[in-house]
Each structure stands twice: as structure tokens, then as C-alpha cells.
């Protein structure tokens, strides 16, 4: 129980600290990995590692990759000029150096930059009297192309990542529970602020709650699926306008036995995940949010947002997070279902009893009619 309290403390009151979220409202997963001893695995996929770095580290690696290669080859060019004696024959017009107009380390460094970036100003140029320089020139050209492809590829992928696209996918601040078609439903709203749509959007939801098995094993972050229409296909969204996602609280729902009073005492987190493909780039995008137990409003419904204008539908995003109270039973979905079943049974038996009485009355009427006919025949 000590572990349970440390991971999932009791529901906070006004004096206690707020509950630690598993997923923040902006979608960031609040999980940090510690005591990792196999960090070398990051180097086996260096491309993904560089893409996952923050922008400050990515720019530093980008600059250092070019600076180190320029300095490295610049030092080699300077070493070749020094070993061949080119620096000792700067004023000798009959001497053919390896690289013309290289008179020190700075000029060798500039020649390295010109070679790797294929600038070619024409002032410093390699001669045909230096086979070692020719081989070095080929090596630097090949390695420079590889560095350009790798670093520019990393920056392109990082710039084109759809993470920023997810920021224009918004979720309502609260989830609500109310009746829909005489059934208790858990609902939240999702919308897209951009005019370019998310292609093939689909919705998933998870219940994050501590659990203790019958064998006594404690699972601090147990994940349970919350159906939002997977069986019927309602989880596949046409997200042109804001939609209210509904989870019907039935016998398969984890909220089947939860009443309004129990909701106020519960400690759980609902994680909602919206996935789809960005129409402009064709890349997969994922947006996440979460709702704590105190962010689920019992007996509320979302305010309407859409109105019909001249030739188009007008969406008022000012009402995106607005809710209003509606009459909702405070009992659990199980109790509501049992009450509806008892009512249906009562109506069934009352109707059946009336149907049973109607043939008796009909028989009595027919019997009376036969008696009247019989009496008339006797008189005749």
C-alpha cells in the first residue's frame, strides 16, 4: 500500500497537492527514464537521436559538424604545405606548391571551406604536382557530401515534423457525463483550428488507474481501453467541424458501477489520443490530452457551436469549452439500467394482464349473444 500511495495518492482536497498527471493537457507525456545503462543504443540510430534533440542541441550539432570537418581538413592542408616546404618558398616564383596562395593556417582553413562547400573563388587552387593533395581533395569532397546529406536531412526532418500541427488540434478543458438516447455517456469535444484537414483521423481513449489484482500484484499505471466507437466505426472521424466524442457507459465500460458520488471520490486519468495524416505534408500527426477525475463534470452537456449563415456553416470557437447543466440521474449506469429494466417489466406485465382480460370479456359478450338468440328461437 505504500507503493500505491506514492504513485497514486488519494484524491486531493483543497489543502493537498494536485495529482500528478501521466499526460499533460498539452499532450506531453510526464515520464522520465532513469538509471538507463544501455545508452549506447542511442548511437546505433544516430539519425533519430539527432532528430529527437531539442532545437538548441540540434543547432549546436549542426554547426559543430561543419566546423570540425573544416578545421580537420584545413589542418591537413596546412600540414601538407608545411611538410612539402611550400611555406618556405612563398616568394619563389619557380616553386610549384601543392595549393596556390596557401601561406598559413588561415588560408588553408579557407581553402578547406571552399573545397567542401564547392564555392571555388579561384584564388586558391590545387595544382597537378601534388598527388597527396589530389587524394585529399577527393576524400574531402566525398565526406563533405555525406555530411551535407546527413545534417541537412536531419534539419529537414526536424523542421517538417508534424508536432506543431498537433497544437492546432484542440480538446475541451472538461469531459462531461450526461444522458444521450436514455443512456449515460462520457463525452468530450475535439476540434481542428486549421482549414486544411486531418486525413483518416481516428480517436482512442485510455483509462489510467491504479489496480490491484486478485493475487495481490499492484499495477500503478494500469491502462484500460475506453470504447469511443471502435466496433461501429464511429472512432473514424471526419474532422471538418468540432465533434463531440461519446463513450457509452455500458456493461463493458470501466465506469459501469460509478455514480456521481463515487466520481467525486475516484482517482483516475482519462487519456485521449487523436491520430491522423496531415493533408499538406502526408505525415502522421498525433495529438493527446487528458482529463482527471475532477475535470469530468457530471450532469453537463456541451454548448452548441454551429449556426447556419448565408451559404456556409459558421463555427463559434468561443463556445468550444462551454458546458451547461442538464437533468441527469446521479446513480450509476448499472442502477439506471436496472431501473429501466424494472420499468419495462412492469409495463410488460400490466399490458399482458389487460390482454388476458380482453378475451374474457369477449367470451362473456359472445355467450350473452348466444343466449339471446336461443330465447328468440324458443319463442318462435
Could you tell me the CATH topology label of the largest domain: Immunoglobulin-like
CATH class of the largest domain: Mainly Beta
CATH superfamily of the largest domain: G protein-activated inward rectifier potassium channel 1
Please count the beta strands (DSSP E, at least 2 residues each).
14
Helix content: 25-40%
Q: Let me know the average pLDDT.
A: 82
How far apart are the first and last residues' alpha carbons, in Å? 98 Å
Beta fraction: 15-25%
- Total helical segments: 9
Helix/strand/pairing category: alpha+beta
H and E string: HHHHHHHEEEEEEEHEEEEEEEH
Subcellular location: Membrane
InterPro entries: Ig_E-set, IRK_C, K_chnl_inward-rec_Kir, K_chnl_inward-rec_Kir3.3, K_chnl_inward-rec_Kir_cyto, Kir_TM
GO cellular component, one term: monoatomic ion channel complex
Catalytic activity: K(+)(in) = K(+)(out)
What do you see in this structure?
Helix content is 38%, strand content 22%. The protein has 9 helices and 14 strands. The longest helix is centred in the C-terminal third of the chain and has 47 residues, at 333-379. It starts with a helix and ends with a helix.
